[in-house]
């Protein structure tokens, strides 16, 4: 099955219908075992002065407990098996005993598809199988990606670690407790939200990893609107188009962060601005709704969403036969 993506400009236009809501959650522990609860849900604790902080993202690099990248990510399917009644109730359509779900996948897969119109050189491999009228999508590492992972430099690995270490500095186990930044970084411990979404004509059941919850959020808000995304970025000198670092921040970062957060219904990103040595000096809070305007014209929200919808249209037309039982 081949699909030819157009340019981002050709997908611009009317914003397709999109909505998402949380229908469940689950966790994975230090051994990457599935838990049908929210034990890994964290609270994002902001310092009193966001403009003057000191967070050394290098601390604990040698003690990191790394994620097993080749392990099969079947946690969403375990959740579905344990919550079949909730799935049926949430996706039931009028005058029918069966739920209607077009696709089951992870948020990361949708982000990969939507980002393709901007990142032409990236390659990916997505497999689709149909079972009980539902199409399950799963992405696999290509040979190029496996090779690129094997070629990561120590600097590359360190910068990946910086992002996870920042989460340690910002996350606590309870809303009234403090982060324990001295604990080892463990990339296996995660909290996921399970979402019901609709994009254009497509009904989706998907999950997304969540960094943490805002302890000051209104408890009456939908769960996804209480979540926060944590990111790091290199500091820039001037908020001007002539500053190369500022341009990268407004174009590349805003584009990627918007799509990732929007697909999960997350309203804000907390950014740790760091120097070249991996020291976070200040924090910024960026509403996701403001990102298109901050992107220097590099992001039209309709473009990646229309690209995803168009790809899903194509998959529906190609994946007709049910998988053998």
UniProtKB/TrEMBL annotation:
InterPro entries: RAI1, RAI1-like_fam. GO terms for molecular function: metal ion binding; mRNA 5'-diphosphatase activity; nuclease activity; nucleotide binding; RNA binding. Keywords: Hydrolase, Metal-binding, Nuclease, Nucleotide-binding, Nucleus, RNA-binding. Residues 21-319 form the RAI1-like domain. It is found in: Nucleus. One of its GO terms (cellular component) is cytosol. The keyword Transmembrane does not apply. It holds the Pfam family RAI1. GO terms for biological process: NAD-cap decapping; nuclear-transcribed mRNA catabolic process. Its cofactor is a divalent metal cation. Its main location: nucleus. Its EC number is 3.6.1.-. Belongs to the DXO/Dom3Z family. Decapping enzyme for NAD-capped RNAs: specifically hydrolyzes the nicotinamide adenine dinucleotide (NAD) cap from a subset of RNAs by removing the entire NAD moiety from the 5'-end of an NAD-capped RNA. This is Decapping nuclease. It comes from Caerostris extrusa (Bark spider).
